[in-house]
Automatic annotation (TrEMBL):
PANTHER family: RIBONUCLEASE T2. Its EC number is 4.6.1.19. This is ribonuclease T2. Keywords: Disulfide bond, Signal. SUPFAM superfamilies: Ribonuclease Rh-like. One of its GO terms (biological process) is RNA catabolic process. Coiled coil: none annotated. GO terms for molecular function: ribonuclease T2 activity; RNA binding. It comes from the Eukaryota. The active site is at residues 82, 121, 125.
């Protein structure tokens, strides 16, 4: 196994181990009390049921899928993943080599080592997905399987909500300038989700989509609680070139 892949899984495994141990030590959770996830109702929607079992519905159930548009990073015909971020309702070679290959293409870091970026995303965001807690997995739990499970969940949501494809089908392609309302409408018309756009100056950097979670892993579009920070006219640059901004 290449050294970079080994170091990533070692880092995430250590983070996962620390998380699980901390929950057992500080929260008094015992392995005999672990609840199998297959006993959960499938139709519960996050943030709608007070005091819902966190193995069945994520405690931090308002979820944001953040997709980046960075000119020097990732395929020229795709956004890349920034993260899948659980938020409060009030506002994997050894286990999955193809997933790791996908992450290298569609979830790269544009400034740091990929391993550090992925470990950060797992430590800060993945560990907040309560439905992936080891205690929720029952007798079938495989140590550290929650790590590739989280990244695999991101992959599925990212592929379903393909921003580049949705925009292209509406005639919005890289290399042009577009009205903010046109860009937003193109995404909403094709994907039925209200996006929030983030820019540096007038240059598009990121699009965020907000969801509730039905059951453990079905994402339902939700009303975003943040505003755009882009101007009325935005620049959607082509990747891997030196076009003037």
């Amino acid at each position: 196994m290449p050294a970079w892949k080994t170091s990533f899984f070692v880092a995430t495994a250590l983070l996962a181990a620390g998380w699980a141990s901390a929950r057992q030590v500080f929260l008094g959770e015992d392995s005999d009390l672990f609840r199998p996830a297959d006993s959960c109702p499938m139709d519960v929607i996050s943030c709608t049921v007070p005091a819902a079992d966190t193995c069945c519905s994520p405690k931090y159930g308002l979820v944001i899928l953040a997709q980046q548009w960075t000119r020097s990073t990732g395929p020229s015909d795709s956004f890349t993943v920034h993260g899948l971020w659980p938020d409060t309702c009030s506002i994997v070679e050894s286990q999955d080599a193809p997933l790791l290959d996908w992450m290298s293409t569609y979830w790269p870091s544009y400034k740091d080592d990929n391993n550090l970026f992925w470990a950060h995303e797992w430590n800060k965001h993945g560990t907040c997905v309560t439905t992936l807690d080891p205690k929720c997995q029952g007798d079938d739990y495989v140590p550290f399987s929650e790590v590739p499970a989280y990244f695999g969940q991101v992959q599925k949501v990212f592929q379903k909500y393909n921003l580049y494809k949705a925009l292209k089908q509406q005639g919005v392609v890289p290399g042009g300038q577009y009205a903010l309302v046109t860009f937003v409408a193109a995404i909403k018309n094709k994907l039925n989700v209200e996006p929030r756009l983030y820019c540096r100056g007038r240059v598009l950097q990121e699009v965020r989509l907000t969801f509730h979670v039905k059951g453990q892993s079905t994402y339902l579009p939700a009303e975003p609680y943040h505003n755009h920070n882009c101007p009325k006219i935005i620049h959607y640059p082509s990747k891997r070139n030196n076009e003037a901004i």
